[in-house]
UniProtKB/TrEMBL annotation:
The lineage of its organism: Eukaryota, Haptista, Haptophyta, Prymnesiophyceae, Prymnesiales. InterPro entries: SGNH_hydro_sf. This is SGNH hydrolase-type esterase domain-containing protein. It comes from Prymnesium parvum.
Amino acid sequence: MSVLFGAHTQPVAAALTLPHAVIAAATQIGDPRRSVRLRRRLSSGRALRSVALGGSSTSGHQLSRTSPLLYHARVAEWLRTLSAAAAKEHQHANGGTPAIGPEYTEKCLDTLLVGAPDLVFVEFAQNLQDEDSSRALERLVRRLLQLPTSPAVVMVDLPTWKSMSNARDHQREMVPRLAAHYGLPYLSLQRLVGELDRSNTTSVHGWHPGAWLQCGNSTRACRAEAAPHPNKFGHQLIATAIVRLLERTWQAPLPSLTNGSGIPPPLMTRPSSRAFSSVFTPTGWRARSGASSLVPNYELDSAVCVGPDHLSSYVEHAHNWSFVREGTKLHPKPGYVATDGEENDLSLCYPVTSVCKDVDACVGRTVLVAIGFLKSYDARMGTARIWCTGGCSCEENSKMKYDGRHNQQNSVTYTNWLATKLSDLAFSNQKCPCSVHVKAVPRTRSPNSGAARDFRFKVTMMMLSHEGEMKWIDPWKTLWQNVGDSAPDLR
């Protein structure tokens, strides 16, 4: 029986007893070498670093990001109890980001890790929208496996409504396939619950979805939820299964050293290159691409992902813009805000040359850049015009505006992508290879509409993509809760 603890010393809930046959049916051990290395580090008294990567289920959804009830926090606390090092020396970070897919995490990985981790949980089964999402997940896994600490990587497979309806979910099926291909420990929550139900395992909770998901007591109420997020008991189930999975892994015989421990070639393929252009759609400016021949899905060059606390390093000038820190301690909302509606200019320097190794090949190349900005129901919110100077160009159009206001009663960070074309000036000795300018303008110039006050616009983050499509990070998908945090929450 695995006992899972909460805040350092006190149990957060009763321990769960899960039959060995159920655990075996819902998990796969994979290659145990990385997990055994993790166990040896624990035994030696070394302080561990762990991080959880995923979407809203990992982030917490209705639970706090720092809640000890989250599945990864429970496992991290259990590992503390096994270590000879002081519990306070261990670090665990919640790198889950609501409403995103692996495309975002792949590009912003460096900002989500706690140094070089020893253990990484990867949970994106609910966030795989299409084949590009699955490709990004594979590239993310490959980057994790090449970290200098050779971390143990555990794949966590949470269900979708489609899979729970016994319909085939092609993208979600890539999670166990990738785990098997790279020899990673793997857990399926849906399979776990199904096995418990079939084995008639006694549970005071019952096995109705509402018992282990954050939804009502009926199937109809559950399906009204956007995604099947685990509740407290669901997180406990996941954590218990992961603990038992690690225990099984540590007891498994080690493969022969002659089998090799290198990273296998990619399972998937991707287009060798893409031709981008900016197109205006009802939701704003988007990057459109055309595919070419296919190549192995090797990891891509690193991207630039800058949160608000680090934006100042990339600001060339901020004429009538100022850095502010609003919101609460739990959910801070820092960023640059325009302080004048008529004469203002925020110029952000994008290091576009960092994605180019061959200067000659990069002249004329299109690189995707992004600006994260706040959309709010605040009546003061205005719009912003965007243009580019220096060694990059973006299409000039009077419609190229970002609107900072919407009718929903929330404040959300939208991430809008812009296709910029590089010129030879980007590779000259000038200080900034590509300057993207943001000018806040009033929503209306009518003298009776409060034009003097409705120009407020807030920039919260910036991103620079390597070559690869980012279409799943739609403006309505990227939320405040973790995007732009200066660092993950540490426990």
